[in-house]
Amino acid sequence: MDRPAAFVLGGGGVHGVSQVGMLLALAEAGVVPDAVYGTSVGAINGAMYAAEPGHASVARLHSLWQKLADSDLFGGSLLAQASTLLRTRTHLHPASALNELLAATLGDVRVEDLALPYQCVAASIERATEQWFTAGPLMEAVLASCAVPGLLPPVEIDGEHFLDGGLVDSIPVGRAVALGARTVYVLQVGRVETPLRPPRGPSEVGFVAFEIARRHRFTTTMANLPDGVAVHVLPAGADPQRLTGLRQLRYRDLSDVPDRIESARDATTSYLRAVGIAP
User: Fewest CB within 10 A of the end CB: N or C in the chain?
Assistant: First the structure.
């Protein structure tokens, strides 16, 4: 029986490095999807994979993340960040560095021309709903999906403004299932593996509220999967201390990139063996 498979790559900022290890484990197991869906950092990783499925794209992603660890994508002094915020009144970082990175990485490819069917999601400000990009310039779509509120400016496309896709669908399993996937591999970044607890101080109140908003759609989708759908939530193999409290929001911490990739690879390989997907 034909069971269309999908890779779903969720959002999570710098923790998206774990997805490289997961993709490596999947490639080593010979798993290639029929479609790819991404949100935020998952939109970047997913786009690169969909352009050239398999080991070659994973090697490119590995190199990209190492460059990110060595670069200053969201750098600048506190004074520079304050200056940007005062000038724009909406965000801490200009989009220029990310634009240059994606231009060098993705080029002028269109979504519909990728090797695998690919979609990514962003949040429309004017319509207050999700926007799935299924065609058009790939870089434009990915930038919209990655426009983290407060960090980066909204992305304007045809007169409409978009923010990060994690606001509306942080781990888009439901989209994959609605479009026919019957086997779904979820490349999350470790957050859903870490239980929430009631806030213990003022600094944690906003974080807990954000995480509930971020997770509830995924949780609801997983609780109401239709019959005949198999979903594999791949383990990130992350250090639990990286994914608790405000540590999750350290968006500039790209230390130990090789270790985090290898940890996710090992954890995912073990999982795939346990369920009989990998030898």
Answer: N
